[in-house]
Structures are given as structure tokens and as C-alpha cells.
Design goal:
Blueprint lengths: L24 E10 L2 E11 L4 E5 L6 H8 L7 E6 L2 E2 L5 H9 L1 E5 L10 H11 L4 H14 L15 H13 L5 E5 L7 H18 L2 E6 L2 H7 L2 E6 L2 E7 H6 L4 H7 L8 H4 L9 E9 L1 H4 L2 H9 L4 E10 L2 E11 L5 H10 L4 E8 L4
Parallel strand pairs: 3-8, 3-9, 6-7, 7-8
Antiparallel strand pairs: 1-2, 1-4, 4-5, 9-10, 11-13, 11-14, 12-13
Helix pairs in contact: 3-4, 3-5, 4-5, 5-6
The structure holds adenosine-5'-triphosphate.
Length: 364
């Protein structure tokens, strides 16, 4: 099989001494309002070379405004925006042009020109920049290869699937060898399988080329699949930020907890309706585990140390990057009055979250 990631020209990050370089993006105390509606409220953040930063929030949280601020498409009311060490706050359009050429962008609805072929769409930024035809064609050929579109060079956008259109969008965004790729809900219009393949492609591009990526999304699944670090926005403010693993394992803000809810298992309804809060033969627990705790034989240890046999009702271990993280619903026999306290003490020492959901008497 052909190597899908041939040498496609040196991207800027690989030529840089990472330790000596400034962040690719630095925002300091950025504010932006629209007719009294605060879209960005004192936002400070940095994007490090080579990382994938995910920005998540509900509709209206300020994500689009934030990403548009990074490439100077959005004017700000206060604060400072730096790109690759250069203060770009308040630069005129003409001064912003060379900055924007170093920032690629992909969009939810792809923004392709329908009257141009795939190859022409991809080569367009180079044509606009005045690149000679031969160099342009060579670059387009590299990008078609990189994005798996070699056999679609002469197709028109209307002849492509959503995933293929987004591949064209990615190839076009990479044409000018940007330092930074911005992704604005790039997978929101795609089905889960296509989303997965596009995220894989972005991850590969990040790994192989060292390309820095900032993406905005409203889906925690996207963050989990691709990001190294996450910033959670709510009403224009950063309510939480950290490594994806830390934020998933120990979310602090209510916004993050609520955004994570859709990814976390919950007790199936037919079991939940059998729960008795007053008491029963078995105590039903929700146990959250992450990192080392998730690598332990937790239930076997409980059986040995407590002398009681826990039953797994539901849940399991998932992974964020290479780190395990999970939620288990277990029923543990609690025959005597002291057992409940003994069981809780045992698990409390080992897990990151523990909740008593109730009791069951008959096996459910
Ligand atoms: N050009 C504009 N004019 C007026 N209000 C705006 C404008 N752009 C954004 N806003 C307001 O700023 C707030 C943040 O909007 P923004 O589009 O940045 O949020 P978002 O998180 O990207 O939302 P969505 O996920 O729905 O796209 C919202 O209250 C929005 O109505």
C-alpha cells in the first residue's frame, strides 16, 4: 500500500526549536461584546506548538467568536492577541493577510467552490498567493495523496460525499503549509463513522507534520477522540481547562459535568426502577475509576478483602488517549448493619467517585 503520508514539504513547526519558541497563539484578557451581549469575557489562553487544543461549549458559549479572534476575523474590545510571537491586535486588513496565510481553516459546511474541481479548490490559496503553476500542481498532488483523494482530483464537490468534501477542505487548508490549523465544527455535519475517519486524518496530520490544531466543537466525543488539552467555555468565560484526561477523570465545573454526561454510562432504567432507597440484600454503587485505580482488579480485591462477592451490573472501562477511565455499577451483598460502612470505606480509598444508588433484594 502507498504511504498515505508522503513527505509533503517541511511545515513550519518541524523547523522550529520548540523549547525556544513562543506559543503559537496567546490571548490575554480578551473581551468582545455584541450590542451588550458578552461573547468573550476576559479570555486568556495559550496554544503550544504541536498540540491539539479543543474548545468546547454549548451553543452561544462564544466558541466561534473565540476562533475568529485567533485569525483576526473578529475585532476585540479589549485584550491582546498574539500569533507566533507577533501582536496582531488591531492590525489592519492588509497587515493581517500574511498572518492569515499562515493559518489554515476548515469549516462545518466545507466552503468549497462548486464550479471548481477538487484539485482547483485545493490549489486556490496557492493561486491567490501567486505561486507558479508547476509548484502549485506538485503541492496539490502531495495534498491529494495525503488526504486520500488521488482519484478525485477532477471531480466536482457535488460528486463527493461529506467526508470527501471535508478532506478537500483539509487539503486546501494545508496548501500554504500553515503554522496553525483552525477547525470550526469540522465534523458536525458528518455521520459518526465519517467523523471518526476525519478526526483520524487530523490526528495523523498533527502527529506526522507537527501541525498545531485548535478546534471548536460542542461534542465531548470529538474532544476525547483527538484533543490533547481542552478549554471549556460557558457564557464567554473559561470555566475549566486542562489535559483531556484530567478534565474527563475529574471534571470540576457543572458545565463540564453536564457536557460529559452523554458519554458516561447510566444505570439502565429497568435496574433503576428496582432500587429501594430504604434497604435490601445488596447495596448498589456507582464507582468512578481512572488511571491506576482503573487498572486494578477492583472487584476481585473487594471480594478478597471484604469477603463479599460484588456483581457487575453495568458499565465498564473506556480510554482517553492511553489512560483508562470508567464507571462501574455494582451490587455488593450487605447482609449485616456494619457492612454498608465497611463496603464504602473499602471503595472510598481506591476510587475517584463513589455513590450509593440504593438497594436491591432480588437479582436484577
Ligand atoms: N455578529 C454578531 N452579532 C451579534 N451577536 C453576536 C454576533 N456573533 C456572536 N454573537 C453573540 O455572541 C454570543 C457568542 O456567540 P458565538 O457564535 O461565538 O457562540 P458559539 O459558542 O460559537 O455558538 P454556536 O455553537 O451556536 O455556534 C452569542 O450570544 C451570540 O448571539
Amino acid at each position: 500500500m502507498n504511504n498515505p503520508f508522503p513527505t509533503i514539504g517541511a511545515h513550519a513547526p518541524l523547523q522550529r526549536d520548540l523549547a525556544a519558541t513562543p506559543p503559537v497563539v496567546r490571548l490575554r484578557h480578551v473581551r468582545r461584546s455584541f450590542d451588550g451581549v458578552v461573547a468573550l469575557d476576559d479570555i486568556s489562553l495559550s496554544v503550544q506548538p504541536g498540540e491539539i487544543l479543543g474548545i468546547i461549549g454549548r451553543s452561544g458559549a462564544g466558541k466561534s467568536t473565540l476562533i475568529r479572534t485567533i485569525n483576526g476575523l473578529e475585532r476585540i474590545d479589549a485584550g491582546q492577541v498574539e500569533f507566533d510571537g507577533q501582536d496582531i491586535t488591531g492590525l489592519h486588513e492588509t497587515a493581517l493577510q500574511p498572518v492569515r496565510r499562515r493559518i489554515g481553516m476548515i469549516f462545518q459546511h466545507f466552503n468549497l467552490l462548486s464550479a471548481k474541481t477538487v484539485a482547483e479548490n485545493i490549489g486556490l490559496p496557492l493561486k491567490i498567493a501567486g505561486e507558479a503553476r508547476a509548484a502549485r500542481n506538485a503541492r496539490v498532488a502531495e495534498l491529494l495523496e495525503l488526504t486520500g483523494l488521488r482519484d478525485k482530483a477532477n471531480a466536482y464537490p457535488s460528486q463527493l460525499s461529506g467526508g470527501q468534501k471535508q478532506r478537500v477542505g483539509i487539503a486546501r487548508a494545508l496548501a500554504a503549509k500553515p503554522l496553525l490549523l483552525l477547525s470550526d465544527e469540522a465534523t458536525s455535519a458528518l455521520d459518526p463513522e465519517t467523523t471518526h475517519s476525519i478526526l483520524e486524518l487530523l490526528r495523523e496530520i498533527n502527529r506526522r507534520l507537527g501541525l498545531t490544531i485548535v478546534l471548536i466543537t460542542h461534542e465531548m466525543e470529538v474532544i476525547r477522540a483527538i484533543a490533547d488539552r481542552v478549554v471549556v467555555l460557558d457564557h464567554g468565560r473559561i470555566v475549566e481547562e486542562g489535559s483531556v484526561f484530567d478534565v474527563f477523570a475529574t471534571p470540576r465545573s457543572e458545565t463540564t459535568k453536564s457536557l460529559l454526561r452523554s458519554l458516561r454510562p447510566s444505570l439502565p432504567a429497568h435496574i433503576a426502577e428496582h432500587l429501594d432507597v430504604a434497604g435490601g440484600a445488596e447495596i448498589v454503587l456507582r464507582i468512578d475509576v481512572s488511571g491506576d485505580a482503573a487498572r486494578r482488579p477492583l472487584l476481585a480485591e473487594a471480594a478478597t478483602e471484604l469477603g463479599l462477592l460484588p456483581r457487575l451490573l453495568h458499565g465498564g472501562i473506556d480510554h482517553v488517549g492511553d489512560q483508562p477511565i470508567g464507571t462501574l455499577f455494582v451490587a455488593v451483598p450487605a447482609p449485616g448493619p456494619g457492612d454498608r460502612a465497611r463496603i464504602l470505606r473499602h471503595f472510598n480509598d481506591k476510587v475517584s467517585g463513589l455513590e450509593v444508588l440504593g438497594y436491591v433484594t432480588d437479582p436484577v
